[in-house]
């Protein structure tokens, strides 16, 4: 996708805060508190990104996370603008996420961070399972990684030097 096209779509991105955590740095002068935030952005039409930010105040951390998320926007392959082409498993750290396409009317069957990523990506029917660790940041990143693995029939045909009908 051309850069100009992506930039114009970035203006219409929705955002959702996944987690806000208090981070402590212990120095000889005492404890120094900061806040970390993880944010997901998406346009519900196939664009989605994740970002994290740290600052002394919560709103500032969220603002930094939003900027990072907007830089990391990725295009996701959708079928009929509602589900994914095939199932996939992705692993980030100890968090593992399985995503499967679902029939029309199923809805988003996913929890927590994975649900936020899938909703903002514009997926309407999907089944997701979090395997392993449930760390919000890693689950969100694993979900995005699994979505990036998706290949449309057209892409597979191009890789095999065939026409879509031949598949």
Give me some keywords for this one:
167 residues; alpha+beta; Double Stranded RNA Binding Domain; Ribosomal Protein S5, domain 2; 2 domains; four-stranded mixed sheet; 5 helices; 8 strands; elongated
Please sum up the structure shown.
Helix 3 (112-121) packs parallel to helix 4.
Write the SSE topology:
Elements: H1 3-10, E1 14-27, E2 30-42, E3 47-55, H2 58-71, E4 74-75, E5 88-92, E6 95-101, E7 108-109, H3 112-121, E8 126-132, H4 136-148, H5 153-159
Parallel strand pairs: 7-8
Antiparallel strand pairs: 1-2, 2-3, 3-4, 5-6, 6-8
Helix pairs in contact: 3-4
Structural overview:
The protein is of the alpha+beta class and 167 residues long. The protein is built from five helices and eight strands. The protein has helices at 3-10, 58-71, 112-121, 136-148, 153-159; strands at residues 14-27, 30-42, 47-55, 74-75, 88-92, 95-101, 108-109, 126-132. A hairpin with a 2-residue loop joins strand 1 (14-27) and strand 2 (30-42). It is elongated.
| CATH topology assignment of the largest domain | Ribosomal Protein S5, domain 2
The helix content, as a percent range, equals 25-40%
Major β-sheet strand ordering: 1-2-3-4
Query: How are helices and strands ordered from N to C?
Result: HEEEHEEEEHEHH
